[in-house]
Description:
- The complex is a heterodimer of chains A (259) and B (260).
- Chain A is an all-alpha fold and 259 residues long.
- Chain A has helices at 2-28, 39-51, 59-90, 92-105, 114-121, 125-149, 153-161, 166-203, 209-218, 222-250, 255-258.
- Chain A has 2 domains: 1-34; 37-258, MetI-like (MetI-like fold, Orthogonal Bundle), CATH 1.10.3720.10.
- Chain A has 11 helices and no strands.
- Chain B is 78% helix and 0% strand.
- At the A-B interface, helix 1, helix 4, helix 5, helix 8 and helix 9 of A face helix 2, helix 5, helix 6, helix 9 and helix 10 of B.
Amino acid sequence: MIAIKRSNQFYNFVSIAGVLLLWQLVVSAGLFGKLVPSPVAVFKEFIDMLQNPIGGRSLFMHLWFSIKRVLTAFITAVVTGVPLGLFMGWNKKVDAIVKPVFELLKPIPPIAWIPLAILWFGIGETPKVFICFVGSFVPCVVNSYTGMRYVDPLLIDMTKTFGATRRQQFIDVGLPASLTAVFAGLQNALSLGWMCVLAAELVGAREGVGYIITLGMDTANPAMIIVGMLIIGAVGAAIAVIVRRIERIVCPWKRGITS
Amino acid sequence: MKALQNFLRKNILSIISLVVFLIAWQIITVYEIVPRRMLVPPTEVVELFFDKLNNPDPDGATLLAHFKTSITLALSGFGLAMIIGVPLGLLMGWYQRFDNLVRPIFEVMRPIPPIAWIPLAILWFGIGLGAKSFIIWLSAFVPCVINSYTGIKLTDPVLVRVARIFGATDREIFFKIGIPSAVPMVFTGLRLSLNSAWMTLVAAELLAATEGLGYMIQMGRRLLRPDIIVLGMLTIGLVGAILAGVLGKIEQRITMGRRM
């Protein structure tokens, strides 16, 4: 087992090192001119970005701006979307009333809301948060809804037999049973929110990670873009890990399935 | 007639809800509770729809031309991603050595949203067709690979062993057992990737385009014409839904009789 693991690590190392080496060689040979920076140049740019402000703000401030936007939108979406989805799944009437309008708006990608958001809210923080909200809201609703719809009817019938009120059925059976689906939704919501903030910042912003890569484009500095992309990827991956951790704490019964 | 009555009875709440939604929209816009520069009544959106069918003003192309540009781009990017991504994913899942070599690179690239590639793509390929095709291809490529990979990894080892006992070659096992058992997952991947391609297309067209549905809504914003934006958004949503529906039908056809 350990031998297998070690050989895997070996392959991983060979693969990453191989790509970096190839990348460096190709760039040094001057095949792409200035368009593709070498890995060494990218690393230097990263160090430089850590030390010097980018467009008037430090790298961490930019990161904080983006994260703040996503979190504001995400929390709003969870607070509104999850209960809405749960009630839609629980109550047929709520479902019948909300669903048609929701289904009408759902297929519109959140990014397509950007122009309207700018028209409505100007170019400050609000349109960006709004876009992220639209992106996070849909998976929150959809997954809570599906989770609630797929609650084992046997469980509900059982509690009914034992005389549980409608309210108790909802809180003690429906809610915990749909929690794993809700969490899958939260995960999607956060990663979609992260993607939307990027899109919103690309279209127009003076701060945030999206601004960093736009600045890289405007100043024809591909190294800066690549550093920005890697940071965006790292944050995205970190978000996924954190949500998974929280999920394990909140719904421990799922541990056996995921691992 | 009977069927219609039944349909009405079953969906009465939904129909009322939709009608109320549209009427509310009409009222808040007609009486300018929401100013006209922000939102226009649904009736005007419908009017604009018929007008845009053969009127290229004011955003430079008819609705059909925008649609054609976008759909060609999305489908070609998606097709190319499918042709390259699905086999790559299948091979990664099947051959351990190949997997070991390709996966680390893939894992580094995967969490970067396709939209983050837009600036680099524009820098590399300019704002023409090249940049957009690249971005859309990339956005569709990742889910294709991941799902084909997971799908073939989940092949029941018992089936593989049975085939081996009966003397099947590795090649036969791959084509007759591995691939068929991966099909449902591959389709999930295709659905995700089509969805992702369509969404990324809009983003790419917002930033760099001279035609297409994304460009149309961007022009709507510049010209302060909310009706153009709303029409564009609805078209984008509708086309996305139709694409997903068509793919779902194909999936049903192919995976018929297979349990998920």
